[in-house]
Specification:
single chain; 8-stranded parallel β-barrel; two-stranded parallel sheet; 32% helix
Length: 295
Amino acid sequence: MQVRGLLCMILVLLTIIGCTKPDSPRALEEGNAVYYWRTELRLDSTERAFLQQYHINKVYCRYFDVVMNDGDSEPKPNATITFSDTLPDSIEIIPTVYITEDCMHQKHPDLAEKIVKRIRQMNETNDIKHVSEIQIDCDYTSKSRKIYYDFLEEVGGKWRSGMRNAILSTTIRLHQLAMEVPPVDYGALMIYNTGDPRKWEERNPILDYRDVYPYLKKLDQYDLPMAAAYPVFQWVRDIHGVRVEHTVEAEEILRVKSAMEKERKNLKHAIITYHLDKDNINRYKPETYEEIYRH
C-alpha cells in the first residue's frame, strides 16, 4: 500500500507539473522592458529617467534589418545601429534583428550563422558584454512559416553553441496565434499594428480593441511563454497629400491590456512598450505608463 500510495503521489505531481502554464513566472522572468528602434543608440535625460522611473530591466535593441534588395539572390543587412552611448549597467540589452518576410520565401543555408556572427562582432566592437539573449522579428505567414521555423532552429543552435543559459525569442503577431508555436524559448506578443492601414478612417491601424477581440480566445491555447508588447508610438502618414497622424488613446491601450490579461493572466508578468523615445514618453501621462507596466 505504501508503494502504491507513493506512485499515486508521483503521478499527481507529474500531472500538476504538466499542466503548469508555459509562461508562469518561473518560465519567463517578470519585468519591464522597452524596444529601442532607432539607428543610433543615444539617450537623453528624459529617456534615462524613464528607464529608472519604470524599473526597466531589458532593452530590446534593434541591431540591424535583414532585407532582400532588388536583384539580390541573398538577404543583406540594412540600417545597422551605431552605438554613441551605453545603457545603464543594471539593464540587459537584447540584440534584436528584423527580417523581412520575403527573406523566408526560400532557404538561405548560411543566413543563421551570418546573423549570429554579426551580432557577436557588434557586441565585441562596441564592448557590449554579458549578452545571453537575442530576438528575431519577422512577420511570417503560413507561406513562410516552415522556412522561418527551420531558420529559428539554426539560429538557436548557433547562438547557444558554447554558451550557458542562452535564450532565443521571436516576435508573435496576433494572426500568428493560429499557427504552430515557433521553436524558441518565448515570444514577444506584438499588440499593435493590428488594423488595416487602408481602413484608417474606420479604425486606428495601430491598435483598436475591435481588431484584437477575435484573437482573445486563442491566447490561452497558445502553448508558448509570452511577454506582451504595447504601442506608445505615433504613426504619421501622407495620404493623398494630407498629413494623417495615428495615435492610440491611453484608454484604448489599457482596455486592450485588461482584455488580454483576463484571457491569459500571465501576460502581465513581462511587459514591453514600443518604443523608447522622448516624444513617446511625453505623449502619455505617468499614470498611463504606471498602468501599462502594472503587474
